[in-house]
Design a protein that fits this description.
heterodimer; A: mainly beta; five-stranded mixed β-sheet; five-stranded antiparallel β-sheet; 2 helices; B: mainly beta; four-stranded antiparallel β-sheet; 32 strands
């Protein structure tokens, strides 16, 4: 947070802006922050834009610096830009682009432990000096953990306490790993319960009072073709401190590569390409159990998980911004905005169009959606296929060919 | 997540196909024009310089479907879902008023990223309309009234296996036969029916894999053939008997969606989600020999046709409209237009942005990307993957919500 700005905003109407956005889905891993960044009579204005060749990695922000991955010529690169004007601060060439990863790098970097962490489709995990981009250490995830992903590595690394967590998609005993931030050495590695794969970023949080990592796994059908939609999703939870498996559940049907969303009340929500399924996690002593609480076809995996506000889950189902009741999964309202992603700051929700190029800010509560401001952030028709970022009084949008900053003004 | 899903080629693989039948000047009787090669029979009447104007003639609501628009005489035909039923529907071209609708069967529900309703485009010939619904029901209808003349259920009668998102193949009319590429490892992989009675005349099993693609009628090696493509074979069949004339093995383990394109020299362009290949087919005594001239990732599959003009190929490579030299497979230019579907109209490419909802006119020249007009037609963000049709000086476009007739001129 920039102190001067915070003072001004506080005086102007109880608003504050500007926490950092250190990793995929923000500081809380759920696309939501508890501040007033979107409050008041906001106006949205495109502040700056930088062209990018390709890639769909998200944006992380610390202070006045933002970081992402992109393609440049035949390579994947990491780059740092000034959050205030988009000026490039450094770029570091990482790996030759991985041919099967046709969208380029999609893993969102992470900031923590004084490092910037990046993962490329070529499955190289690196710790960088955030000031210069200089590489401090590299782990070859393919070589070390046996990651075997046809399309390369795409999960986002996560900072959790004093560990770096990576869904490594590795051999059976290296599904999920916790690494030492200083060296990249393995602190623990965990075995998944199935012959399963995953491209997804896990979620980290407490369920039943125990900090855990909830991993979305995908069970392949006997047919070896991994594109087969007969594949099924499932969830497995690992104890954060040592990687011990706490509980696991396999869906009866439906699949995606979505990140799980932890809901209040010890529930976990996972969106598939055909529905959303909520599981209630209960604990009896050391034993955990997950049971399906509800499912709805009105929320579907597209760009981001939904956000939670006041007992409601607000996200996208096909063309509709959709609000469902957190307890029952019943739809409360739908608003046709065409597909997009959501993020929340306090009581306000921002909707970022997946293809409209629009950023909209509005009230989304039990009574419906009321738009307050909107702006054309990136080109109409451009794909925005990664969740957006809110930091320092700006919304950052990553399109296939452009990184745009939208200033929130009052 | 869009990115991940397209990484997996799990994106709905749709409207692609082509059919045959005699060219009729101003008509547009089937998917991708009179010859099924993405070419209209006419050019756009736009001036050599300056910005052409666009005038909307009519706009009507329509049910969901990727089905293209066929135009013959005073009627436009397409497929749509409405209130739980999939239909063939006929519109009056002057007013857009619905003339009739005919039932195919229960709606095919969209899933895993796809949408409800018919995928294939109707084929109109000799006063009849033919369409394969997504559940695999082939109907023959009276073009004037919509009265059903006959039907076949390809899954029940021949054990045809639907591809993941449902049948998308559009029928080909060759003489008095309706030729359908049902696909799969069955005796009726390709089946030809008497257009008038619906009686099965011949069937052939030149390939094994399931397809969305549609056969075309073209002259290869001096001989008119039904040319079709599956992931394992591109082949030519004798239109009268179904006997295999030529066959070339492909190594693509996927449900091919784009129709083959036959170039003036008889070579055949085929595409997978990863690359395109040009197959030379040469008469050799009684038979034919085949050889691949080139393969390129520059024209890999999309929802759009690849079209040929004066030795150049125009098509999409991801979000880039691309011109490729047909002789070498080498690119001449590429321009980021975002994904869309195109139609060649004389010296112009007519492109509908599949997420922007904008109609773009581009000169079909190897010199450079030259955009002549850009008009928003559908809502930004709405799924609009159906290619434009052009007949009698009017452009017809549709998406999942609306059908529109336009005039583009000086």
């Amino acid at each position: 947070m920039r102190p001067a700005l915070a003072v001004v905003l506080t005086l102007a109407g109880g608003a504050a802006a500007a926490e950092d956005w250190p990793q995929f889905l923000g500081p809380n891993g759920n696309g939501a922050v508890e501040d007033a960044a979107l409050d008041g009579a906001v106006k949205l204005k495109k502040a700056w834009s930088q062209p990018l060749e390709g890639g769909a990695a998200g944006i992380v922000v610390s202070g006045d610096r933002l970081y992402t991955l992109a393609t440049e010529g035949d390579n994947d690169i990491a780059l740092a830009l000034s959050a205030s004007d988009g000026k490039q601060l450094w770029r570091t060439v990482l790996d030759p682009s991985f041919p099967a990863a046709t969208s380029g790098p999609t893993s969102t970097p992470a900031l923590g432990h004084g490092n910037l962490y990046t993962l490329t489709p070529a499955c190289k995990l690196r710790a960088h000096d955030p000031q210069t981009g200089t590489v401090r250490w590299t782990v070859d995830v393919k070589e070390k953990f046996g990651a075997q992903l046809r399309l390369g590595c795409h999960a986002s690394p996560l900072v959790a306490g004093d560990s770096l967590i990576l869904q490594a998609a590795g051999r059976d005993d290296h599904r999920l790993v916790a690494l030492d931030p200083a060296t990249g050495a393995v602190k623990w590695s965990a075995k998944g319960p199935h012959r399963a794969i995953s491209y997804s970023t896990p979620a980290v949080g407490a369920l039943g009072g125990v900090r855990q990592i909830v991993l979305h796994h995908v069970i392949l059908p006997p047919d070896p073709n991994p594109d087969n939609v007969a594949a099924r999703s499932g969830l497995t939870a690992f104890r954060l401190e040592d990687g011990g498996v706490l509980w696991t559940v396999d869906f009866e049907k439906n699949v995606s590569w979505e990140t799980p969303l932890l809901l209040p009340g010890d529930r976990v929500l996972l969106l598939t390409w055909n529905d959303a399924q909520a599981y209630k996690v209960t604990r009896a002593g050391d034993a955990f159990r997950a049971e399906r609480a509800w499912a709805t076809e009105d929320l579907i995996s597209y760009v981001s998980p939904p956000v939670v506000r006041d007992g409601h889950v607000i996200g996208f189902g096909r063309d509709f911004l959709t609000c469902v009741n957190l307890e029952t999964g019943k739809t409360v309202w739908r608003e046709k905005l065409y597909p997009g992603s959501v993020l929340r700051a306090g009581n306000r929700v921002a909707v970022i169009g997946a293809n409209t190029g629009m950023v909209r800010v509005g009230e989304a509560d039990a009574t419906g959606w009321r738009e307050i401001a909107a702006v054309q952030a990136v080109n109409r028709g451009a794909s925005v296929s990664t969740p957006a970022t809110l930091a320092g009084g700006k919304v950052f949008v990553r399109a296939e060919d452009e990184l745009a900053a939208v200033a929130i003004e009052r | 997540m869009i990115g991940r899903r397209s990484l997996f080629a799990l994106v709905p693989v749709l409207a692609s196909a082509a059919l045959a039948g005699p060219s009729r000047g101003a008509d547009f009787p089937r998917l991708w024009g009179p010859e099924g090669d993405g070419r209209a029979a006419e050019d756009l009447a736009i001036p050599a310089s300056g910005s052409p104007s666009t005038r909307q003639v009519w706009r009507r609501a329509i049910g969901s479907g990727y089905s293209g628009i066929a135009v013959v005489g005073a009627r436009a035909y397409t497929g749509m879902a409405h209130q739980g039923t999939d239909h063939v529907v006929a519109f009056d071209v002057a007013t857009g008023r619905e003339a009739w609708r005919a039932t195919i069967g229960p709606t095919y529900k969209g899933h895993s990223g796809s949408h409800d309703g018919p995928i294939a485009t109707p084929t109109v010939a000799d006063g009849r309309v033919f369409l394969v619904g997504p559940h695999g029901v082939l109907v023959g209808l009276d073009a004037a009234t919509g009265k059903e003349l006959w039907r076949h259920d390809l899954t029940r009668e021949y054990s045809a296996a639907p591809p993941v998102y449902g049948f998308g193949t559009s029928p080909l009319v060759a003489g008095n036969l309706v030729v359908v590429h049902a696909g799969g490892a069955i005796a009726q992989h390709v089946a030809a029916f008497d257009a008038k009675t619906g009686a099965l005349v011949w069937s052939a099993r030149p390939a094994e894999q399931r397809v969305y693609s549609s056969p075309i009628l073209a002259t290869v090696g001096g001989r008119p053939q039904v040319v079709g493509v599956a992931g394992d074979k591109v082949f030519g069949l004798d239109p009268k008997t179904g006997a295999v004339v030529f066959s070339h093995a492909l190594n693509w383990n996927e449900e091919i969606s784009r129709s083959p394109l036959v170039l003036p020299d008889g070579s055949v362009l085929v595409s997978s989600w990863g690359e395109a290949a040009l197959v030379k087919v040469t008469p050799n005594g009684q038979g034919f020999t085949t050889a691949e001239a080139w393969r390129t990732p520059r024209l890999k599959n999309s929802y759009s046709a690849v079209v040929h003009r004066d030795g150049m190929l125009y098509g999409f490579s991801g979000g880039f409209l691309t011109c490729v030299d047909a002789a070498t497979g080498e690119p001449r230019w590429r321009q980021r237009t975002y994904t869309g579907s195109l139609l060649l109209a004389g010296r112009h490419l007519l492109v509908l942005g599949d997420k922007s909802g904008e109609l773009i006119v581009v000169e079909a020249t190897p010199e450079a990307y030259r955009e002549r007009a850009r008009t928003p037609v559908f809502a930004a963000g709405a799924t609009s993957i159906t290619a434009p049709a052009l007949a009698g000086g009017r452009v017809y476009v549709r998406n999942l919500e609306e059908i529109v007739a336009l005039e583009i001129g000086g």
